Amino acid sequence: TDIGSQKDRVVSEEEWLQKWEMGNIGFHKEQGHPLLQKYLDVLLNGKSGLRIFFPLCGKAVEMKWLADMGHSVVGVEISEQALKDFFAEHSLPCCEEPVPEISGAKRLQSTSGNISLYCCSIYDLSSSIVGKFDAVWDRGALVAVNPCDRQRYVSLMMTLMEKNSSCLLVTVSYDPNKHKGPPFYVPESEIKSLFG
Ligand code: SAH
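Above: the input record for the complex with S-adenosyl-L-homocysteine. Below: its predicted structure, written as tokens.
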């Protein structure tokens, strides 16, 4: 299939913030994702107390779910509203602090400490700021990244992953000439070549 029609599409950060403001967030699901439930064992590989990364996290309910299992969750999201809604909707007290390494960025953290969400662009992060992760849940992240930024996104993700870590990634398959995205159509062959 030809992804030509989506190749040059760009969704600006401003447009994402507007989606949150307008409540135009059809991508958010109140129920935990069935594929995370199905493949949880593959992701965790029998280990406990993992550091799990949620790129482009929105207010994904799976963050609460994994934190309740004793893992420590780190997310990144440009919309502060999304992050505030996340803590409010789960009645989790949180505190916020600036991130000295990133100008304008904030970190919102559950008081209990095991959910830490960065309000900034993912491209501002590096392993020296957030450390490395044992597991990644990528749902609505690679497929939301602008097609021109895919390589940059994946290269960054590789630097944030520990040697023996795994990433569960959800992609979508449809005719890219019928819908402009996001979510963008990312064929399996492209995922293979991006991650190697
Ligand atoms: N993963 C979430 C949200 C998917 S929608 C879920 O499963 O529900 C994609 C999200 O990425 C939006 O909330 C948008 O505000 C955020 N986003 C877009 N570009 C970003 C960037 N460069 N850095 C961080 N977050 C970004």
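Notes for the reader.
The longest strand covers residues 161-170.
The mean pLDDT is 96.
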